[in-house]
Amino acid sequence: MKFIKDDERFLANVRARIEQYVKKIDAGQVSEEFVAFELLCSIFSGHEGGLEAEKIRSAYPIDSWRENNVEIPVAIIRAIVGGWVKYQASEGKLPLGVAYGLEGGGKGKRPMASTNQTLNRDQKLSNEVVLELVLAERQGYPISQDAAIQAVTDREAVGYGTVCNAFKNHGAATHKLLKGKD
After folding, report:
1. How many CA atoms lie within 13 A of 75 on its CB side?
2. Are 41 and 85 in contact (CB under 8 A)?
3. pLDDT tens string 83-111
């Protein structure tokens, strides 16, 4: 990604680009989502080139854009911009979801949303087992790991093996965190 160093030129270009895109949105030529990605890249390049946020904000031709802002960590924006740049550089050969690492990208890989959903489910099941163990111990009636897994299996209506594997993969770290919080 090239970073523009000439501050005034950059700010004038951003302002003109925003105005041009607003007209295209109004004419139905482009979507707001497309424009958001494009402008995010432009604005971020100014930040990466050393411009202060206030200077960049001054280039926004729309008052509400200058006045209504949210601070977002640069690392998050960099990931969004990086995915968009990767998508644009592929000239349509790379699906947007693949450019962002959201889709499997072929070769039997599962989409990130599916993988994350499974991970979240497993962490939840593991947390439930740990809570069973810790709460029983704190109440003075410790139970076995198998009994805690069975309790979660029954309550969540999932297979014993599913809960057992989830606990095996995630339980130790969670248990350590909870045990340390007396």
Report:
1. 0
2. yes
3. 899 898 998 888 888 888 777 655 656 66
In the structure encoding, which two tokens stand for residue 27, read together? 């004419």
Can you list the pairs that 6-13 forms with residues at least 24 positions away whose Cβ atoms lie under 8 Å?
7/51, 7/55, 10/45, 10/46, 10/49, 10/51, 11/46, 11/51, 11/55, 11/56, 11/58, 11/59, 12/59, 13/42
Q: By 3-state DSSP, what share of the chain in percent is helix, strand and coil, each rounded to 5?
A: 70, 0, 30
Q: What is the pLDDT of residues 11-51, one digit of tens each?
A: 888 889 999 999 999 999 999 999 999 999 988 988 888 88
Spatial distance between the Cα atoms of 133 and 75, rounded to a whole number of angstroms: 37
> How far apart (Å, rounded) are the C-alpha atoms in residues 130 and 148?
8
| H/E element, 20 | helix 7-26
**Total-model pTM:** 0.58
Distance (Å, whole) CA 170 – CA 68: 41
* Angstrom distances, CA of residue 157 to CA of 37, 128, 151, 163: 42, 13, 10, 10
The token duo for 167 is 């606990």
The two structure tokens encoding residue 18: 């925003």
